[in-house]
């Protein structure tokens, strides 16, 4: 019997993405259109603009993924699409396009939770058994959770304000890194990592956020305002013009990276202690999965590695292209749900019903 084929569609934020996988996890075709450049110019995502760009690209991207896989839409076993969380206007484009497809071809529909898909991506490549601990750190996400099963997540903590990648991007802009030719092709987080490597003395002491909080939540907004104050003070001292880099930019970058890394590490350590106390993770071969754009930071990885070593856990990170938003993770999550028989909506002539 041929393996079943699943189409995954993702439009929750600023990437229009699609992929076709077979149920063994083989990626048959994928396509992605990023809106990042447009949003970078306007200094942030404007939802109606994102929606229009998804509309302009969805058909082309889905067809590209299907064509690359060498199949026709008729041969699909199901369509899996991100339905939450994300920008409502962006999600709507992927959802209505998917419903058009499943109605035309009479296919089952699998609604996907974007964060769950991020958390389970690792299982496409490695044999990671439930339960495991997951840390998602990116420009839009900051979450610690225990993954107990395909649709069974225990949220341990999340950011009470902004996500770490967002903070790093904003600080990089404040430091005028984004307009500097050396860093112009990098994200804010990458630029800060790069600069911090040149000067790894931590001379600006920044307060590690939430050290008094007995929970696993995160906060980055306070750190950002501490740094902004230092930047403005140094700019006045050095009498520099807008767009010029401070002479102490590398020292600031190193201090920011150190503080972000230690904040993330401390919350993760608390989560591990909590899991051990409550018996939420296996006593042998427990696993911490770290994903999201910020997880590619080598310094943050090094600190997380030392924490997992000390806790006798294995640290796993999916490759960067699967850490960022993509269609593969959505299709893979659809496959896991299809195989487990959960959350599938069957389509009978344009009317959906849930099994059981
Ligand atoms: O997962 P991702 O590609 O996309 C979204 O968040 O949508 O994450 C992007 C974020 C950006 O904020 C970027 O600054 C950050 O990840 N990032 C990094 C590094 N590379 C990307 N942060 C720290 N160190 C890095 N090397
Ligand atoms: Zn995401």
Automatic annotation (TrEMBL):
GO terms for molecular function: metal ion binding; tRNA N(6)-L-threonylcarbamoyladenine synthase activity. SUPFAM superfamilies: Actin-like ATPase domain (SSF53067). It comes from the Eukaryota. It is found in: Mitochondrion. Its cofactor is a divalent metal cation. Signal peptide: none annotated. The keyword tRNA processing applies. GO terms for cellular component: mitochondrion. Binds 1 divalent metal cation per subunit. Its EC number is 2.3.1.234. Keywords: Acyltransferase, Metal-binding, Mitochondrion, Transferase, Transit peptide, tRNA processing. GO terms for biological process: tRNA threonylcarbamoyladenosine modification. InterPro entries: ATPase_NBD (IPR043129), Gcp-like_dom (IPR000905), KAE1/TsaD (IPR017861), TsaD (IPR022450). It catalyses: L-threonylcarbamoyladenylate + adenosine(37) in tRNA = N(6)-L-threonylcarbamoyladenosine(37) in tRNA + AMP + H(+). Pfam families: TsaD. Residues 26-332 form the Gcp-like domain. Belongs to the KAE1 / TsaD family. Required for the formation of a threonylcarbamoyl group on adenosine at position 37 (t(6)A37) in mitochondrial tRNAs that read codons beginning with adenine. Probably involved in the transfer of the threonylcarbamoyl moiety of threonylcarbamoyl-AMP (TC-AMP) to the N6 group of A37. Involved in mitochondrial genome maintenance. NCBIfam families: gcp_kae1 (TIGR00329). This is N(6)-L-threonylcarbamoyladenine synthase.
């Amino acid at each position: 019997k041929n393996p079943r084929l699943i189409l995954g569609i993702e439009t929750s934020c600023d990437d229009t993405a699609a992929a076709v996988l077979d149920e063994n996890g083989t990626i048959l075709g994928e396509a992605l259109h990023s809106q990042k450049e447009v949003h970078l110019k306007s200094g942030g995502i404007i939802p109606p603009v994102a929606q229009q760009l998804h509309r302009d690209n969805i058909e082309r991207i889905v067809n590209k993924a299907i064509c690359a896989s060498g199949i026709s839409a008729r041969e699909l076993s199901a369509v899996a699409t991100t339905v939450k969380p994300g920008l409502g206007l962006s999600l709507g484009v992927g959802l209505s396009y998917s419903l058009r497809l499943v109605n035309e071809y009479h296919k089952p529909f699998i609604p996907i939770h974007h964060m769950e898909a991020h958390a389970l991506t690792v299982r496409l490549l490695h044999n990671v058994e439930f339960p495991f601990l997951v840390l998602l750190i990116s420009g839009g996400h900051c979450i610690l959770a225990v993954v107990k099963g395909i649709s069974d997540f225990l949220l341990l903590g999340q950011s009470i304000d902004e996500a770490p990648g967002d903070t790093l991007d904003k600080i990089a802009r404040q430091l005028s890194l984004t307009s500097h030719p050396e860093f112009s092709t990098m994200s804010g987080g990458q630029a800060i990592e790069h600069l911090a490597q040149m000067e790894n003395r931590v001379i600006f002491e920044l307060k590690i956020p939430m050290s008094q909080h007995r929970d696993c939540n995160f906060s980055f907004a306070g750190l950002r305002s501490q740094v902004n104050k230092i930047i403005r003070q140094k700019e006045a001292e050095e009498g520099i013009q807008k767009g010029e880099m401070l002479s102490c930019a590398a020292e600031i970058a190193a201090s920011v990276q150190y503080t972000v890394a230690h904040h993330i590490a401390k919350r993760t350590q608390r989560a591990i202690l909590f899991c051990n106390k409550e018996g939420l993770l296996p006593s042998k071969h427990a696993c911490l999965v770290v994903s999201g754009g910020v997880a590619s930071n080598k310094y943050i990885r090094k600190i997380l590695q030392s924490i997992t070593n000390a806790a006798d856990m294995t640290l796993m990170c999916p490759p960067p292209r699967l850490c960022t938003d993509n269609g593969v993770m959505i299709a893979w999550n659809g496959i896991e749900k299809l195989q487990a028989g959960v959350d599938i909506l069957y389509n009978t002539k344009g009317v959906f019903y849930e099994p059981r």
